[in-house]
Each structure stands twice: as structure tokens, then as C-alpha cells.
Amino acid sequence: MDTLYDIKPIFEFAKAYGDVKIVDRILIKTLPILLKNKLELSAAAIDESAVVSVPAEIYQSVKVAAEDLTNKTFAG
């Protein structure tokens, strides 16, 4: 079984440095990989969840999108 990684801290990082719609913008930017993996995420679901566990491929994609959109490096 593949190792799962929590992307919730990436979204918290993005909210601290991005605009009000940053979570939606990250989800839109990563939509192709989310759909490929049959993963449905929404800003509300992310906010309500304590942990959002995903495979490494999605973790990396979300991390890159967050860094691109905030122009900051995620150190988590």
C-alpha cells in the first residue's frame, strides 16, 4: 500500500500567505490529478477535516500549486 501524506498543512500555509480564494485556486490547478485519482475535494471538506491524506503524487502537486500561487516555499 502506498504511503499517504497529509495535505491539510499545505492548505493552512496557503491560507496564511494567499488570497481569500487560495484553496479553490489550488484545487482548480490540481483538478486533473485529483480526477485521475478519483478524489473529490472541496474547500469546505478541507476546512472541516482534521487530516486530508493523499498519495505522494497528489501531495507534490498540491505543494507545487500552493507554492506557485503564494510565491512562497512550503517548509512542512
What can be said about this structure in brief?
With 76 residues, this protein is mainly α. It contains five helices and two strands.
Jot down its keywords.
single chain; 76 residues; mainly alpha; two-stranded antiparallel sheet; 2 strands; 59% helix; 8% strand; globular
Describe the structure.
This protein has helices spanning 8-17, 22-29, 31-36, 43-48, 56-70; strands at 4-6, 53-55. The protein is globular and about 30 Å long. It has five helices and two strands. The model has no long low-confidence stretch (mean pLDDT 95). Helix 1 (8-17) runs parallel beside helix 5 (56-70) and helix 2 (22-29) packs across helix 5. With 76 residues, it is mostly helical. Helices cover 59% and strands 8% of the residues. The protein has one domain (4-70). A two-stranded antiparallel ribbon has the order 1-2.
Class derived from helix and strand content: mainly alpha
Provide the number of structural domains. Answer: 1
Cα gyration radius (Å): 11 Å
> How helical, in percent, are the residues?
55-70%
Number of strands: 2
Q: Write down the secondary-structure element order.
A: EHHHHEH
Provide the low-confidence segments as ranges: none
Strand residue percentage: 5-15%
Largest sheet: number of strands, sense, barrel closure: 2 strands, antiparallel
As laid out across the biggest beta sheet, the strand order is 1-2
**Mean pLDDT value:** 95
Count of separate DSSP helical elements: 5
CA(first)-CA(last) distance: 23 Å
Indicate the overall shape: globular
